[in-house]
Design brief:
The chain is mainly β. It has 1 helix and 16 strands. The radius of gyration is 16 Å and the shape is globular.
Length: about 190
């Protein structure tokens, strides 16, 4: 079935998609905000604010049923069953687009950004990795995924990293990855 403006979606470009635990589809649009499915239709996820007009660069869900949405202007929004929260510079996310996110096996959220590399959400803050061999803050991360061995993989502009608890960060920059952009990846099981 085709979903378009006759289904409630705005005209334009759809940038990101995620499915919630309850089966709801969440669609991030370019310059049109965030939408969620409601039966065979789509409705705006918020009544007002940046999630109604801005480009949504990342949408992800977590094990608790919350939906996280990053906007191009910077920051990250979280829809939980009871409240909408927002994190920005005061929580360790400078004004930079959040481009991706993934939850690891322990329930920790990892987000990729356009200027700060990868960040972990701990104790109400997004923090850089303390691994000296890890990615530099200016790494542009486009995508992140978790694998069954407990690893988190993050990739982007000329970078591919693997984070595994208790081990140093591994960087893969050999051809054909070097000087290339990796914009999507997934675990194959």
């Amino acid at each position: 079935k085709r979903f378009d403006s006759t289904s409630g979606l705005p005209k334009g470009i759809f940038q990101t998609l995620a499915q919630g635990r309850d089966g709801t589809l969440w669609v991030g649009t370019r310059n049109g905000g965030l939408y969620r499915s409601s039966g065979d239709r789509f409705v705006p996820a918020a009544d007002d604010g940046p999630l109604t007009t801005q480009s949504v660069s990342a949408v992800m869900t977590d094990g608790e049923g919350s939906v996280w949405a990053g906007v191009v202007s910077g920051g990250l929004h979280r829809f939980s069953p009871r409240v909408l929260q927002y994190w920005s510079a005061n929580a360790g996310l400078a004004p930079t687009p959040v481009t991706s996110g993934v939850e690891d096996a322990s329930g920790m959220l990892w987000v990729g950004t356009a200027k700060l590399g990868i960040r972990r959400f701990e104790n109400g803050r997004f923090t850089a990795l303390e691994d000296p061999a890890g990615p530099e803050d200016h790494s542009i991360i486009y995508c992140a995924t978790a694998t069954s061995d407990g690893s988190i993989w993050a990739a982007g502009e000329q970078c591919l990293y693997r984070f595994l608890p208790g081990q140093p960060t591994q960087a893969y920059l050999e051809p054909p990855v070097h000087r290339e952009a990796i914009r999507a990846m997934c675990a194959d099981g």
